[in-house]
Every structure is written in C-alpha cells, then in structure tokens.
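Summary of Year 1 activities. Much of the first year was spent building the evaluation harness for sequence design. The harness presents a backbone, in tokenized form, and records the residue chosen at every position. We chose the following record to illustrate the format because it has been used consistently in internal testing since the harness was completed.
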C-alpha cells in the first residue's frame, strides 16, 4: 500500500449524500472507506457505484463472530471487488484464519484477493476504558502489539491501530505488515469521540502504511481544501 492517499471515511447515511460529497472532488481518484452505516443502508450496490467512480474501497465491516460465520461472510465479501476488508482481532486466531480462508475461497481465479486486516483496539478506546470496563489489565499498547502478533501469525496482511502503536508493530512484528490508522486529526480539529489521535504529519513520521480520515474532511467547511491539506501533510509537502 505504498503511496496510498488518505483513505476518506464515507460515514454518510445514503448514496445521494455520499455522491453529493464525492462530486466536489471533480473526478479525482480517491481511496474511500465504506462503513456499517452506509453499507447497511445501501447494500453492495454502493460498492458498484463507487467502483464506477474509480474509487478504491476499504470495506470496514469489522466482522467478529464464530469462525464458521466469519468464513462464510468473507467468502461473500471476496466477490465485491474491494481492496481491503477487516475483522476484529478479539475474535481470536482461529476466527482470523477462517476469515482468510473464506476470502481465499471466494476470490475467483485471476482476481486479486482483498487485503485482510484486523482491528486491534478501537482508536476510541482509552486505557481507563480498557481497564475499568473491559477488565483488561494489560497496558493498552501491549494488547495492540499482542493482537498484531497473532494477526500476523494467522496470515493477515496487517492491522488497524492508532499512530501511537504503529512504530512498535513495524519494529517488533514485521516491517511489511500493514498499519492502517484512524483517529487522524489536523492540529486544530475537534477530537470528537476519538481518544488516541494524531496528525497526518505524526503518521508520516511514524511510518504508518495508511491513514483513515473521516470528520476532519467530511465535516470541514471546505472538504476538498481539508483533504488537500491532509494530503500535503501526509506526503510531507511543505505548504
Ligand atoms: O471521523 P473520524 O476520522 O474519527 O472517522 C474514523 C473512521 O475510522 C470511522 O469511520 C470509524 O468507524 C473508523 N475506525 C476507527 N477506529 C478503528 C477502526 C475504524 O475510528 N479502530
């Protein structure tokens, strides 16, 4: 995923809202993320419409279920022609292996299998929440590293983590393991419900594979200008 542009989280309620937003970008080739809200509203047809607009797609459905169910879900998702899909690492090693087997079984000969990544800890999770609500006493960064190790052992292509954990994953798991990082904010932006945030410049410095940006672009007064500012920071281009 070298030279991946910022992945825009299309957290919109419908296709018309999504395309009203995308039309502002004047045909520019974009990498977008379709999450639960949009997918549950529009179904697979939204993916066809986005592909028709030349978008690369991260389908962010964060599957987390028993291995057989995740295998079958991934077998279906493999036919959608998207670039990236994900599961929750908390589903365990056997579930992640089943996810990969499902994707491989559902990818037709001659087609490229979508990359599969595992969510470690959500970027909205704080150390306090992990310890007090989930009763996980291990330090948050250690849990992310541990989940990343067993995602790699399960054959996955990478993980979703915050920028703050990416460097250790790169050093201690594998330099070729993808780190896809949400929780990205420009220095002056609101954090909203995110906790472990970082700027695009921090992400570049830490060597993450890709950044995912939602509200800093979608809720900006001028989304195209916000996107371009993020692209410049992410690529290290001085203003
Ligand atoms: O608006 P914002 O930039 O916070 O959006 C981040 C996007 O990334 C949301 O669509 C959210 O579902 C997703 N995400 C996340 N943390 C994860 C995995 C996905 O914020 N660990």
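For this record, the design step produced the sequence shown next.
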């Amino acid at each position: 995923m070298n030279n991946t542009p910022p992945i825009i989280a299309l957290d919109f309620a419908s296709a018309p809202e999504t395309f009203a937003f995308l039309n502002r970008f004047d045909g520019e080739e974009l990498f977008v993320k379709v999450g639960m809200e949009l997918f549950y509203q529009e179904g697979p047809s939204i993916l066809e419409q986005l592909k028709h607009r030349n978008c690369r797609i991260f389908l962010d459905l964060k599957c987390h279920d028993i291995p057989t169910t995740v295998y079958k879900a991934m077998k279906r998702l493999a036919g959608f022609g998207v670039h990236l899909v994900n599961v929750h690492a908390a589903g365990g090693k056997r579930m992640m292996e089943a996810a990969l087997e499902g994707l491989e079984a559902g990818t037709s000969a001659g087609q490229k299998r979508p990359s599969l990544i595992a969510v470690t800890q959500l970027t909205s999770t704080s150390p306090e929440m992990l310890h007090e609500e989930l009763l996980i006493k291990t330090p948050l960064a250690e849990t992310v590293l541990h989940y990343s190790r067993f995602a790699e052992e399960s054959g996955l292509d990478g993980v979703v983590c915050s920028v703050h954990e990416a460097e250790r994953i790169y050093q201690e798991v594998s330099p070729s393991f993808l780190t896809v990082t949400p929780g990205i904010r420009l220095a002056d932006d609101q954090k909203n419900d995110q906790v472990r945030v970082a700027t695009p410049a921090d992400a570049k410095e830490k060597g993450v594979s890709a950044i995912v940006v939602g509200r800093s672009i979608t809720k900006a007064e001028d989304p195209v200008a916000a996107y371009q500012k993020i692209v410049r920071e992410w690529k290290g281009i001085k203003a």
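The pocket of cytidine-5'-monophosphate is lined by residues 9, 11, 35, 60, 119, 122-123, 160, 182-184, 192, 194, 212-216 (CB under 6 Å). Quantitative recovery figures across the full test set are reported in Table 2.
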